[in-house]
Amino acid sequence: MKKLKRSARLVEMTQYLLTRPHTLISLTAFADRYGSAKSSISEDLAIIKEVFEEEGIGELHTLAGAAGGVKFKPVMPKHTALAIMHDICARLEQPDRVLPGGYLYMTDMLGQPDLLADVGKLFATAFRDRQIDVIMTVETKGIPLAYATAACLNIPVVIVRRDNKVTEGSAVSINYVSGSTKRIQTMSLARRALKERSNVLIIDDFMKAGGTIQGMIDLLYEFNATVAGVGVFVESGDVEREERLLEDYISLAKLTAVDMKTKQMNIVPGNYFNS
């Protein structure tokens, strides 16, 4: 690459880091890329680190040693996240989003790139210090949330299917009881999709009693995998404690009340904001 002026190098380095989250980049790689001394690169990284932290963009971690370098972790400050979730909650409270059974229509919002980018960064912030190899979700509405989170954590996504596809090859299938409907359903995951003993972050769009997520957890046992965390976009508060199948999870929003007659809902920020 041609030698750049420092101002241009700072811009290019910033872009390089932003598009490679959770990736260790050595000083040597930067020095070779820009034809600059490591001392100059270190000074540039110090400037970028300061701006990232002051503007709430993320954290820039330095790892010492011969195999060291820098790693960018996208981080959303709590106050910024709370403001975003208040806006999302207000949008979700629109009366025409009420579905039979107390569910929410969210498909249109889960197709908006700006919202997905915010939610993905929020989940990535919540789980940034955990050892995660892959993100798991179940088709279909959880898929965009899983990929948005994966983009910030720079890890792959595996998708649990409701039925096995021929193109997926051999698969592991289990029956599970839906926590809300009490019906027995089936989910499957291709054997090639997930390595054994992986650390898995489960992401889902909506949780009522938690039956679907518990099903994914049971499916992970078949792969000797570990649940590194569970993230839920919206949880329903209209569930008795003894009916909830899941205790350890992070939610970004909570549906606390639904009046089916008036189509009125109350949605507040989830348990992530309680601490």
Describe this entry's structure for a reader:
The chain is an alpha/beta fold and 275 residues long. The chain has two domains: 6-74, Arc Repressor Mutant, subunit A (Orthogonal Bundle), CATH 1.10.10; 78-273, Rossmann fold. 33% of the residues lie in helices and 27% in strands. The protein is built from seven helices and twelve strands. The protein has helices at residues 6-18, 27-34, 38-54, 78-92, 113-126, 142-153, 211-221, and strands at residues 58-63, 69-74, 98-99, 103-104, 134-138, 157-160, 171-177, 184-190, 199-207, 226-236, 250-259, 264-269. It has a six-stranded mixed beta sheet. Strands 1-2 form a two-stranded antiparallel sheet. The protein has a two-stranded antiparallel ribbon with strand order 3-4. Helix 7 links the parallel strand 9 and strand 10 (226-236). The termini are far apart. The mean pLDDT is 91. It comes from Paenibacillus chungangensis. Residues 5-74 form the Bacterial purine repressor N-terminal domain. Residues 110-241 form the Phosphoribosyltransferase domain. This is Pur operon repressor. Keywords: DNA-binding, Transcription, Transcription regulation.
